[in-house]
Write a structure and sequence with these properties.
Layout: H1 2-5, H2 20-31, E1 39-50, E2 53-66, E3 72-80, H3 93-109, E4 114-123, E5 129-137, H4 138-172, H5 184-196, H6 211-224, E6 230-235, H7 238-253, E7 260-262, H8 266-269, H9 288-302, E8 305-306, H10 308-318, H11 322-330, E9 335-339, H12 341-344, H13 355-359, E10 361-365, H14 371-379, H15 385-395, H16 400-419, H17 429-447, H18 454-465
Parallel strand pairs: 3-4, 6-9, 6-10, 7-8, 7-9
Antiparallel strand pairs: 1-2, 2-3, 4-5
Length: 466
Amino acid sequence: MEYVFRSGSIETGFRSSQPLVDGTKAHQKVQKTYGKNDKKEVYLKTEIPFEEMTFQIDGRCDGLLISEDGSLTIDEIKSTSGSLDAITEDSYPVHWAQATVYGYIYATDNDLDKITIQLTYIQVRTEEKKYFQRSLTREELADFVMDVVAQYAPYARLRLELKRTRDESTKMLAFPFESYRDGQRKLAGAVYKTIHEQKTLFAKASTGIGKTISTIFPSAKAIGEGHLEKIFYLTAKTITRTAAEEAFRLLQEKGLAITVVTITAKDKICFQEQVNCDKTECPFANGYYDRINGAILDILQNETLMTRPVIEKYARKHTVCPFEFSLDLAYAADAVICDYNYIFDPKVSLQRLLDEQRKKSALLVDEAHNLVDRAREMYSATVEKETFLALYRMYKDENEVIAKSANAVNEYLMEKKKQNQQLEKELDEKLVHVVDAFAYAAEEELMRGGEAEELLLNGYFSAQRL
């Protein structure tokens, strides 16, 4: 659904970072209002033959509502921390698409002539709800679903062909050098065994042994054997990123048909003189989602090693943001070369990876000792008293809620300072509570739009990390 229905531009400005648990709670609150005959979390599954392919589509619809006259409604619940006033019936075509496919599956399985599709939007804090409904016949449902499948089919066909040639090539792949260096065969064997047994391997090897090829080669072989679907080569340095690219290039020259993408930091790969993703300022952000599917098909049909220069070439050709382009390619590629943070940092990670993909992914962490300091940065939070004192002073005459919540954090940290509490073994629940209260107040102000105060944004993001 997301592939077919994504459109528009890369949007700038504030977006809520609402935790998933809030959405789950909101769903449950709606579902508790269902009648005794209504059903929730209904698993639906179907298979659709199309042009020598079979599409298996499944999922859980949030609700199946049964009225007194026996008519049925598919309910799709979406939660938001923003205002419901901004949501119209046509705001999110992908939501209609998802619910319509559920309607098609249920109507087909139960021989129904028509079914009602309902979108239920709930504001997570106020619990206010907004509903939209459409009644569709089975023929209308079928036409819609077949049109979606037809639009998705070229991408699916390409992915299937790439997977077939990849698996065939890995089975024939031999070590790319005439002989192994001392220790290389042992390391490669240990890596393959670790992947096969789904365990973790820590390897300390001397410089010059050829660690990069000795980890990438067995990982590629493991893909051909069905033990893996994706490889992530994680590094903190550009020079080791280049070494990984060269290792994959060498294996490709020896016959390996594998797609590899390198993710380069946004500030380095951006085409603009200054990074500004506003669609009015950047032609590569404007209409990005209208062009990205064509760009992905083009590059996957013609390239296998998608390094920075290659990505930049196709990004210019299709007028798409090179950074976002590389992220979208990461979900389709067999191997991804990137910084640690795209996997380990909870604020930056490739979050669209499905659980099944995660279970079949190998992480090759180069120079893993660097993760100690990086992990401290990724998983540590800092809140500074001075920031909240300044926010209190800024908003005391403009926004009482922000001022009061910011002052609560300021006063609590002041009390901590007086008590000279430098180290605590347990999480400070009181601090979390007052910081969360500030984050909610700040988010409401930021969601109103307009020019956000930098101090408020900084305070909000520091609160969110806690």
